[in-house]
Structures are given as C-alpha cells and as structure tokens.
Amino acid sequence: MKPYSKLTKEELKKLKGQLEKQFEEVKAKGIHLDMSRGKPSKAQLDLSNGLMDVLNGDSDLVSSDGVDCRNYGVLDGITEARKLLADMSEVPERNILIYGNSSLNVMFDTVSRAMTHGIMGSTPWCKLDKVKFLCPVPGYDRHFAITEYFGIEMINVPLLPTGPDMDMVEKLVAEDPAIKGIWCVPKYSNPTGVSYSDETVRRFAHLKPAAKDFRIFWDNAYSIHHLYDDKRDVILELLNECVKAGNPDMVFKFISTSKVSFPGSGIAALAASRANIEDAKSFMKFQTIGHDKLNQLRHVRFFKDMPGMYEHMRKHAAILRPKFEKVEDVLEKEIGGLGIGTWTKPLGGYFISFDSMDGCAKAIVAKAKEAGLIMTGAGATFPYGKDPKDSNIRIAPSFPTVEELAQAAEIFVLSVKLVSVEKLLGAK
Amino acid sequence: MKPYSKLTKEELKKLKGQLEKQFEEVKAKGIHLDMSRGKPSKAQLDLSNGLMDVLNGDSDLVSSDGVDCRNYGVLDGITEARKLLADMSEVPERNILIYGNSSLNVMFDTVSRAMTHGIMGSTPWCKLDKVKFLCPVPGYDRHFAITEYFGIEMINVPLLPTGPDMDMVEKLVAEDPAIKGIWCVPKYSNPTGVSYSDETVRRFAHLKPAAKDFRIFWDNAYSIHHLYDDKRDVILELLNECVKAGNPDMVFKFISTSKVSFPGSGIAALAASRANIEDAKSFMKFQTIGHDKLNQLRHVRFFKDMPGMYEHMRKHAAILRPKFEKVEDVLEKEIGGLGIGTWTKPLGGYFISFDSMDGCAKAIVAKAKEAGLIMTGAGATFPYGKDPKDSNIRIAPSFPTVEELAQAAEIFVLSVKLVSVEKLLGAK
C-alpha cells in the first residue's frame, strides 16, 4: 500500500470507513490489556523463584567477613554484595554503596539530600533561587517526576542516535551554574533503546560545568538487559572515563537488580567516587542503621557472580525477545511504508519507542484505550508530560503474553491508522 | 556499707586503694565486651530463623488480594501486612502506611519531607528561619541525630516518671510557632524504661500548638517488648485520643518489627490520620514504586496475627529477662545504699538507665573502657551529646550472654565506685 499522504481525500474517506469497521470488531472483543509499564511477566518472575530457596532457617546467615546478617549494622552493605554490584556496575568495590530495594529510591534520596544538604559541601539546593536539570527526551517519566517534585526546572535536550545532543549539553552546563544535573539512561535508553556512543560518554567525562556540584545522574537500569546473544550494545564505563578526564566526582551511577531478580525485592546501589560515597554515607548514617542484609546475602548466594547473572539474563532474553519481535513484526507488516509512524528496534531494555505523525500521539493512546488497551500516557516521556510534537508513544511489551501482544499490536496499529487518516483528512 | 558521702577522707582513700587493686585484677582478664547498643543477641535472632522458611520457590507468592508480590507495585503495602501492622499499632487499617526495613528511615524521611515540602501544605521547613523540636531527656540518640542533621534546634524537656513534663510541653508548643515536633518513645522509653501515663497521653492529644504543622513523633519502638508476663505497662493509644480531642492530624506513630524479627530485615510503618497518610504518600510515590512485598508476605506468613506475635515476644522476654535481672542484681548488691547512683528497673524495652553522681558519667564510661567494656557514650542520651549533669549512662544488656553480663556489671560497678570515690575525694 502506498503512503497515506499520497492518498486522495476520497481514498482516505473510504479507508477511514474500513478502519472504523475493523476497529468496532476489535472493540467488540472486550479486551483488557495493560501495556503501560515496563513490568516483567510472570514467566520472567518464575526464573527467580530459586531466590526464595537459597536461604532457610538452617542456612549459615553470616557474611563472608563474619557479619550476622540477621542483626543491625553494616551501613555500606555486606562485602559479597558490594563485590557483586561493583562488578555489575563495572567499578571497583570501594566505589560502591549498597542501598535498599530500589534504585529509584536511591535517585530520589540523592536529589533530596542535595536539596537539604548540598553535595560535597555545596550550598543546599533548597537555598538557591533556581535549580535546573537537563532532560534528554524522550526519557523516563519517573526521573522527570522526581525533579518536578523538588521544583527543579527541566530543560529538554534532544536524544540523538548517539545519545544526548552533546553540543547542547556542553554549552548549557558550561554557561549556566543553575544546571546541577542531567538524567541519563545510557544503555538501551527508556524509551528509545538508544545506547550512548563512546564519543558521547567521553564528552560527558570531559564536561566543564559552571556548577561545581553538577552531577551526571547515570541510571544504568538496563546494563545487562540484552535481547540477543549475538548482537548487543556495549557502552564505555563512565566513572573510569571521568577519572581519566580529571572529573572523578562528576557522576552518580545507579543500578539495581529490579529487572534481574524481583522488582521491589531486589537490591540497589550507588556507584561513584569515594568522595561522593562518603558524602552519601554522611546522609545515610542518620537515615538508617543498615539496609536488608539478608536480601543482599540471598542475591549473592543465588547469582554467585556476574557469569551467573549473565546466564540468568539470557533466560529473561529468551522470554522477552519474541515479544519485541512480535510487536516489531506487526508494526512492519501493518504500518511499514505508510509514512504514519516510525519505531525503534532496540537490542535490549524494556521498550519500543514509537513516533507517530505530529499531533497524533494523545489521540492514538486514547483510541487504543477505547478498545481496552492501556498504554503509557502520551507525553509521559517528556518533562511535565508535555511532548512538544505530541508524537512519542512508549510501547512496553514485557508484561503481556505473546498472544496478548498480538491482540495489543492489532489494536495499536488500527488506532495509529485511524488517527492518522483523521489527521490527514482534517488537513485536506 | 554506709553511703560514700558519710565516709571520712581517710576511709575514702583506703577504699580507693582497694578498688584500684580490684580494678587492675579485672583489667588483667583482658575482657572485650560491647554493651553500647540495643542489639538483640544471637539467641534472640535464632527465634526468628523460621522466617527464612515460610517462603520458598514453590510457595504461593500472591497476597490475599491477588497481588503477585514478586512484581512492581502496591505503594501502601500488601493488605495482610497493613492489617498486621495496623493491629500492632492499635489503629484501623486505613491509618497505616507500610514502609521498608526501618522505622528510623521512616522518621528520617518524614523530617526530610517536612524540610523540602512542609506538612499538609505548610511552608517547607527549609524555608523557615528557625525550626525547633522538643526532646524529652534522657532520650534516644538517633532521634536527636536526625533533628541535629537537619539543623533543627533541640530543646530539652525533662522526662518524669509519668512521661515528659507536660506543663512545659503545653506552654512551649502554645507559645512558639517555630516548635514543629517532639520526639517521644512512649512505652519503655529509651533509655529510662518510663511509660507515659494516661494523663500524659491525654494532655498530648489536647495540645494547642501555635504551629499548625506541629507533630508528635511517637516512636512506639517497644510496644510489645515486655520483660514479664504478669506485670507490664499499658499506654493509651494516642491517635484515637487525638481524634477524640479534635486533633486527628497531630501525631505520627512509627513502628517496626526490628526487635521482633530481624533488625535490618524487618518491616516498618507509619500510623497516622488519613490526611497525613495521603500527604506521606504524595512524597513516597515519587520515591519508590513500592517496598519489599515479599518481606511483608514473609512476616505475615510467619507471625500470622498479633497472638502469634505476642507468643514470639514471650520467647524474647525469656531470653532478655535474666539479663536485666542480672544487671539489676549486681547493681543492687554492689551499689545499693551507697548513694553513688540510681537506676531504673523497667518492665520492658531494651535499656536500664543509670544516673551517677553529677559530673561522673563520662569518667565512668571511660573507666569501663579501660577494662574492655564499651558502653554507650556518656551524653549520648541528650541532644548534641550534652548531658548538663554528666550523670546519665545507658546500659544495654541485650546482646551479651548472662555470663558476659556478670563480668560487664562487675566492671561497671567498679568503675562507678572508683570514679565516685575520686569525685568525693576531690571535693574534700
């Protein structure tokens, strides 16, 4: 079929009628599907059920360096957990601080700490007239929600196929001392799947920010979340690059096992320079006596080491891969060549990013909802929920089954087609 | 033996010589004991090993209302955990918000939230010139550390046998709008073991604070931590009293299972009015997607209900009781009637509070350390670590064995005697 833009008004009208009929038929099926969040499926969760078996009442619940994990103490995390998460973060153990069950919580607390106490001796952000963050877009809604909640002004930076527009990033951070941070998902970025190029990482390491307390918030949420064995993205390790560039304190790396073991019952960590780690601990030591060491022990006993974790991630990939491919197949088959949308084919992560014709995203998501398909709200991938082009839609294929995804994709492409036809007719 | 104050200078000198000889003998034993913190002993931790057995890979990991506890979600905590901790807090389920592994963390985050966002719409505390907290003394060092960390001015309020000096509390909160809170451990108070009288609780409920965002920080850390079956303290439930008094929003109650199951691997909660719970959630929803639901499920499956928890606490009491009694016996036998110290005999909680002659506490703790006994630092039970009388010492008998405690008590009483004799000699 030829691109919709080449169709005459009559052809579009006729097409609209056919699509509406098809849509009513799909709607009549009474489907209820939620594709709004990047949640692992039941089959993926089952992969980690063994985590519930590694510790029992007869287990040795003492860490490798003799700590009874059942009692108070050990602010930094037990030695073997520090080792595992240091390896996962590709940093030395001295650069790791273990937290609780959620890296989002670590990020939130890091911003909160900067608000009330500053960073490494800087003025608390709450005492400043203005604090700003750069936000590569499209990006992760929960990042933007944190900075919005703390009244931090967010500035959109385009996310290119190589990562954020570094010309813009370099210029802005050098000029404006109110810019204190940038949100990054450097690998299999949420939602685009983009992984930052080596040059981008190096340019990050060499930033010359006007603010001494500027930090790169490097949320490596999908560091080992590949979809394929034989093709995968590899990114440069940023802390090391920052050290080489003479900027060791400029980065906070965040990591967790949320999409490795169980979301909500995993372990999270901050990776950063020793100076940053000590600064974080100066806050944390008042906040808690220690995080859940039994859960740390449980994770290390289950995964053992990085090879163990890689093997586990291949099982996740085997479940996720067909789902991504199903969505991509339907998109290609149904929309390919029509000129009404483009989408990403990521090699990892949790999302497919779809860009509709300008001004159509909200309408498409609303249309899909009519037929029982809940998608991430249009605009969610932008600060303040405002997508300037109203075109980006995040597709989260992980939770539904392949069969459900086929249905979901059918509803989605019908919604895209209908809204696009209506848009084109409106312009005629 | 007669009171030291009645001894002549010569008698004191002779006594000093004898005590120094005894002390050298004890010191020569090369003892290393840590009695500084209220940590459960290994025997107590063993009581909860079954917690590691209740969930395994074949378990039904779905909550009573159908939530897969392995996946994201459920900000408030799973239904059965809300019920259990509501019962433990003696409030309806609608007044409970489940948090992570530590009530200290809940308290810290509550103060942090007030700093950056205020409470229920009030001005964020970080925007105010001055914020003050009332601190009943002696009290819990980690409470005081939180308020000090946030630059909150702390005002000492004497803790009487009935609870804080309510004449002073009523007057101060009514007069000074900068007073935003008061730290309370209402039952088996840390370190005195005092439980607040019904009148004290009612007067708390009827406070007329000048600050609308004044809150009572009610840390019910030892709510079910009795030492005896047949005698125990009972306190009025404060939230209910606040509702009756027309002040439903004035209290934050904090609770956890830290000294019920495993410290660091327990579950914690905030109990408060719905308006306060919604306010807390408006912060928490940006901070996390949810706390560890598997650990919530684990706790409910292990304890089942409050009778289950009470039965468990009786086992803790059976281990703790002889330790408290051993320390009390040695103190009575060795120091009773000498006029050089008084101490509490609590019916529950984790501490015995000792008051030496004025100006002796620091020296006693230092002396004990010489012989290998680490105690809580003198002054720690007061804001800024400053005990105006230098007399209060917190004794934490939980962690050592009864045999170790006998040794520890011997070192302690010798240290008290020596320092007291030196003090009296200095005054002659």
From TrEMBL, chains A, B:
GO molecular function: L-aspartate:2-oxoglutarate aminotransferase activity
Keywords (A to Z) from UniProt: Aminotransferase, Transferase
SUPFAM superfamilies: PLP-dependent transferases (SSF53383)
Keyword Translocase tagged: no
Top class in the EC scheme: transferase
InterPro entries attached to this UniProt entry: AspAT_Ic, PyrdxlP-dep_Trfase, PyrdxlP-dep_Trfase_major, PyrdxlP-dep_Trfase_small
Species this protein is from: Dorea formicigenerans ATCC 27755
EC number: 2.6.1.-
Pfam families reported for this sequence: Asp_aminotransf
Gene3D superfamilies: Aspartate Aminotransferase, domain 1, Type I PLP-dependent aspartate aminotransferase-like (Major domain)
Name listed for the protein in its UniProt record: Aminotransferase, class I/II
UniProt-listed CDD domains: AAT_like (cd00609)
Chain ranges passing through the membrane: none
